[in-house]
């Protein structure tokens, strides 16, 4: 398969499209956790009960698609190969938990991959909407429409006092997790992130790496999400996160401006050294690639590099992950082989853009 065709099939809309403030905010995600009443939650459910949850969702689909979202395809984890699961996790379409610990799980996926509904993960249903740029409010509206569509034929586990009941108490109430993925190289290079992170945590938010809990913030990419779901409305949760993200956007832009004013030639040199590494390396590890991609994206956003659109850096942040490299290669690769493939993939992608 040609690289161009592979990318066209592999790239989700949040990777390839611009959104509000997309120079800093890569994506916005809303996730709603729901459970069916009268069926044990997944942590205690039998195989028969897990099967019944999938049958309930299949029955809902048979009555017609969600208005405005088109047809969704139901995929069962038992039918998906391990490498394919890894790719789905790298695209942020399913969670590592569903891929690794839910043999009786499944998921619904919209054609443009903005909507993903995980089944029998930690909860019976997890509705996920993933949009490019800062679009938390729009993603919440979409998630609520999907939620209403499901609830027309499904009885949720709900308590008048505690709200939606979930396997983990920290998700009870609204069942909402709102998050944004941000590229913050300016704050990292000016050494402000160590001061900002504790302040964000004190506001009831959590900062993680690109793949969520337990992952490293590779390439200066951070996920910021709410911790509290009980006692606050969905709108309040999103409004609070939007407010913090807007302040971070302003601080990141200020940091970039300060770098350009006080260290312009050093910053430009850093950008083009990283660009040279990506354009010419024959072997490159994940961490080095992520850091170089971060520098080059910063260089594009600040006008140093003009012949490459920023969106290909969004793509490469995901497409150079181990699962994608092996998918493109057509089979398993050793770590050394992946590093060689990663370098070749990046070189070819950059050249493809320059030759257009």
From TrEMBL:
**Keyword terms, alphabetized:** Allosteric enzyme, ATP-binding, Kinase, Nucleotide-binding, Transferase
The record's Gene Ontology cellular component field reads:
extracellular space
Q: Where is the Phosphagen kinase C-terminal domain?
A: 24-255
Question: Which CDD domains does this UniProt record tie to the protein?
Answer: bacterial_phosphagen_kinase (cd07930)
Any single GO molecular-function term of the entry would be:
creatine kinase activity
Residues that bind ATP, according to the entry? 27-31, 92, 126, 177-181, 208-213
Q: Which reaction(s) does its UniProt entry say it catalyses?
A: L-arginyl-[protein] + ATP = N(omega)-phospho-L-arginyl-[protein] + ADP + H(+)
Gene Ontology biological process terms in this record: phosphocreatine biosynthetic process
Quote the EC number.
Answer: 2.7.14.1
Q: How is its activity regulated?
A: Appears to be allosterically activated by the binding of pArg-containing polypeptides to the pArg-binding pocket localized in the C-terminal domain of McsB.
Q: Which InterPro entries match?
A: Arg_Kinase, ATP-guanido_PTrfase, ATP-guanido_PTrfase_cat, Gln_synth/guanido_kin_cat_dom
Please verify whether the record's keywords include Nucleotide-binding. yes
Q: Where is this motif: RDXXRA motif of the pArg binding pocket involved in allosteric regulation?
A: 338-343
Which protein family is it in?
Belongs to the ATP:guanido phosphotransferase family.
The entry's function note states:
Catalyzes the specific phosphorylation of arginine residues in a large number of proteins. Is part of the bacterial stress response system. Protein arginine phosphorylation has a physiologically important role and is involved in the regulation of many critical cellular processes, such as protein homeostasis, motility, competence, and stringent and stress responses, by regulating gene expression and protein activity.
Family annotation (PANTHER family): ARGININE KINASE 1-RELATED, ARGININE OR CREATINE KINASE
Name recorded for this polypeptide: Protein-arginine kinase
What is the scientific name of the source organism?
Mesobacillus foraminis
> What gene makes this protein?
mcsB
